[in-house]
Amino acid sequence: MTALSASEKKQRYDRRQALELLADLPMGQLMNLAHQERVRRFPEGMVTFVVDTNPNYTNVCVTGCAFCAFYRKRHDTDAYLLSWQAYIEAIRSACPHVHIHPFSPAEIAFMAGQETCSVSEVLKTLWNTGIRTIPGGGAEILTEPVRRIIAPRKATTDQWLDVCEKAHRIGFKTTATMMFGHVETDEDIIDHLLRLRELQDFTSGFTSFIPWSFKPGRTPLAQQVKHPAHPARYVRIIAVARLVLDNFPHIQSSWFSENISAGQLGLLAGADDFGGVLVEEHVHKEAGHDRQATVDNVVTIIRRAGFIPARRDSHYRIQETFAPPAPAGANCLSVSEA
Ligand code: SF4
C-alpha cells in the first residue's frame, strides 16, 4: 500500500510509507496532508509559543560532539562552571514562578554514570526537587551509525530512550528533539521517528517533537558538512513528523532554530507550536547562528502565517491568547537574524 492509500484509509504509516512521504511525495501534497492533519487536531487555528531562556550552568563538556562549537575543556581560559544545584536554588528563590525545565536525557544518563547510581535515582532526585518536565535534547539522530560519527561519547540511542521511558513512568513529561542535516540518511530520520513513536505508544510521556538543522559554523563537523540543510528540508521533516508521529500532541516549527520564513512554512506543514522567545541562548550562538526576537515579534510572525498566537507554559497549557489580528502596517522587520 502506498503512503497516500494509507492516508486515505486513515491507517498508521509503516516504515516504507514514512520513507515515501519523506523522499518521494511532492512538497505541496506533503504539506497539504500534514496541514489537514493539523487542522483536524487543532481546528481553532492557534499556534503556541513559550517565553523561555536557556542558561548553561557550564560550558565544560567531556562529550566532544563533532557538531558542537559551544563546549570547552576544563582548563580552557573561557571555561566556566556554576554549581547547578546552587543555580537552581537561586532561580527558585529569585523567581519562584519560573518553571524549571532542566537536563536532557543525555545529561541524566551521564550524571548516573558519574555518581555511580541508577538513572531512576537521578530522576527521583530531580522529581523530589519539584522538577516535572525535561527537555528532549541530545537525541540528535537516534541510530548508532550516525551517533558513532557525530557524538560517539554521548548516550546511545537505547540509553537516551531508556531515560525517557523511566522519566515518563515516574510522571515527567519530556519533549523529543532531532538534529538533522549532517551525515544522516532518510532511513535514519524515519528510524528516529519510529523509535519515538514506539516509546510514546507505551508511555504517552512526550509532549512535542522539535527538529532543528545542524549549523556547521565553527564546529568540527563543518569539515565534512559545509552547508546547513535547505529550509525546504526542514519543512518536509515537520510535515512527515506530523503524519508519522500520530501519537505526539505537538510538533514544533521554530523561527529560532531555522529562520522566520522556514518557521512560518512549518506552521503550514503541520506544526502547531512555534517554540520559545529565547531570552538567553549560547549553543547556537557559538556556532554563529544568532537570533533575537521579542514577544511582539513572535506574535506578529504567527499572525502573518494566518494563525492565532497563544502563549503557553512548559506543559503546553495556554496562558494567554493574542487576538484579534495585528493592525495593518505591523511587521516583523525588526526581528534580528544577524
Ligand atoms: S552538544 Fe552538548 S554534549 Fe555535545 S559537546 Fe556540545 S555541550 Fe557537550
Radius of gyration: 19 Å
Strand fraction band? Answer: 5-15%
In whole angstroms, how far apart are the ends? 46 Å
Total helices: the number is: 13
Q: Segments where pLDDT lies below 50 for 5+ residues? A: 330-338
Structural class: alpha/beta
Q: What is the total domain count?
A: 1
Q: Which CATH class?
A: Alpha Beta
> What would the CATH topology be?
TIM Barrel
Residue-averaged pLDDT: 90
User: Total strand count, please?
Assistant: 8
The level of helicity is 40-55%
CATH architecture descriptor text:
Alpha-Beta Barrel
Shape: globular
Largest sheet: 4 strands, mixed
Q: Write out the distinct hetero groups bound to the structure.
A: iron/sulfur cluster
Output the strand order for the largest sheet.
Answer: 6-1-7-8
